[in-house]
Amino acid sequence: MKNVLIVDDEKSLLLSLTAGFESFKDKFTLYTASNGVEALAVLKSTPIELVVTDLKMPEMDGFELIAHMSTHYPQIKTMVMTAYNTPKIEERLSGNHAIPIFEKPVDFDELAQAVLEGIDGKKSNGLSGISLVSFLQLIKTERKSFLIEVKTKNFTGHIIMEKGELINAVYNGKEGVDAMYGLLEEEDVQIELLTLPQHKIKREITMPLMGILFESMKRKDDVASAETSDTLALEPDDDSEIVYDLVSKVPPDESQNVDSDPHSAVNDTPVSLTSLQIKGVDTMSEIAAILEKLKSVEGFMATGIFSPEGELIQEVKNASINLDEVGALANDILLKAQKSTEIMGVGRGKMVHIEAPKAHILVRCLNESTDFSQTTTGRAHIHMVVIIEKEGSFAMAKMKLASLIQELAPLFR
Q: pTM here?
């Protein structure tokens, strides 16, 4: 008989879930705990296959519990319940380590199905040993502050986050963004949460967390694509010859605008890794360079690129604006406007202009998919926000926005 542990400090929820799972008692035994401390006691005394935990709890919260489990019980699958609106994590970004997240109030049927699949040895629903990517995204979503110790096979690194923002990282003799890239390259890690130092810590990382995760993903894709190209060169097909784009991983005639894509490395014949010059490895720098062009607009305050879910990827600004929050709110307005224009039967809305007492806020969507609500592999889907002073050159900002978002598109395909 399999064993499942649900951890939550809401007694009414535990009682409700216990009653609901009564009909599954022939498939697994349900254990409950009201916080992380109680959960650890169950884990020590009982072989548990799956843990479903809340994040905010007294004594020992879900973050501490997940971190402890990543070190001491990495084989146990984990799922999370949260009362907060958690943005969807792209499968590409989290790979095989995407932790299932259930927003409260929990849909019981959905949770029950996930639990059954999670304890089924033939399926992989649920995460055994949470990845660093998923853990960092949870911290950002819940705006927590931690000193995170990350142990890899050869080294121990540290990451500092304050109220969900990435402050600094140290790993393998490196500091800042380079240390983060090094940590994100590691597949199997052990995570431990330590108390933040009392003194104020100088911020060394200004790039948004989502931007760093995106760049890390692109670097891995570049390496994987180069290895694929190298394999094709070693084992060519005698009957036909197909040249692959290193980013989209599809034949050029099926990709979009291959000739204009700065990442493309198309040649007449497959090429080996040793002779291939991989372009655009530091994608975030390319994005920043394009965004910098908006600084020439009179009254420019800030601009940023966001994922469709509202996660800030890269920003450039002259003013002290929390673009992460402003952009997320503007993104919500854009999504609602897009749905409304679809209902009106006038087509998909692409841009929203917010005229405020102190500034103009422009937010525009570029989605190369046929369905505005979907993201398709190999096709760009990004949102761009521009903030201009009230008396600034709004018309010029609007024109540059339309031009630059097209210029950015190839970097996101």
A: 0.57
